[in-house]
Amino acid sequence: MSNLIKISCPFCKSEKSSPWASENNYTAVKCENCGFVYLNPRPPMDSIDEKNKIGYHETKSDTFRSIKMPRINKIRSFKKRLLPILSMANLVDKKIDWLDVGAGTGELLYVIKKLLPKATLEGIEPSQQKVEMAQNYGLNVVDKTLEQIDKKYDVISLINVFSHLPEPLEFIEQLKEKLKPHGILILVTGNGGDVTASEYPDGFFFPDHLVFAGETHILQILKNCGFSIVDQKKYKFFLPEGLVIRIIKAVCCGNSLFNKGPFRSLWFVARLDNSKK
């Protein structure tokens, strides 16, 4: 804790902020200029390794939530959410290359494999336990960093990874370099920047989570990085969940049983506009 560093707002660089929430002896603040929420002070950059940047959690509760919850529910829910996206983006029945960054145990790739049988699918994931689980399902998920990827993709998905990024704009720029011309980015994150801390329905998971954006922040970041929005949706929950699963998460992971905020999950589909390069 003694080597924590004070930072300015990662979004607008303002120095003015007010306390937003505390957990695990860390504090998140809300920028008084733009409303972006970020951990401050936070661990220095050299201690935020690649694992944290693409979604790795050290906390026991998140290990339970990510690995031991029934995967079949997540797979069904992903299918429901992804079907209209694939159709709208004209990806159905296409031979495409797809990279899932922070692939976890592979639920999203499992669904895409069923929905897009002609696609070549890859995932990168820093947790070796999750990599092994994904590989057991026949999925091409490996422990690599984004910098170690040397090809370009038609689609890149970034699902609930944004909050781990110490420098979000810089990371989205890196993702852009891995996309083919007019490639698509599917970005999903929570809406912490749009709600009060008391409305936020999950544990904060400090210091694994470093930033909490709102809708306008994500839209501006995508625009600044040269993307055009194809579609966006807001949902009460990240994925549809039954009451039993919500109760288990509330007991074991510190989640709220019911979402008190206006919505929980922001889904963006953006296309790289090469004319803006």
Query: Which percent range fits the helix content?
Result: 25-40%
Rg value: 18 Å
Total number of helices: 8
Regions with little confidence, pLDDT below 50 for 5+ residues: 59-70
Looking at this structure, what is the CATH superfamily?
A: Vaccinia Virus protein VP39
> Got a strand count?
11
Structural class comes to alpha/beta
Instruction: Please outline the major beta sheet.
Output: 7 strands, mixed
**What multimeric state do the chains show?**
single chain
- Overall pLDDT score: 86
The top level CATH class name: Alpha Beta
Per CATH, the architecture is: 3-Layer(aba) Sandwich
How many independent structural domains? 1
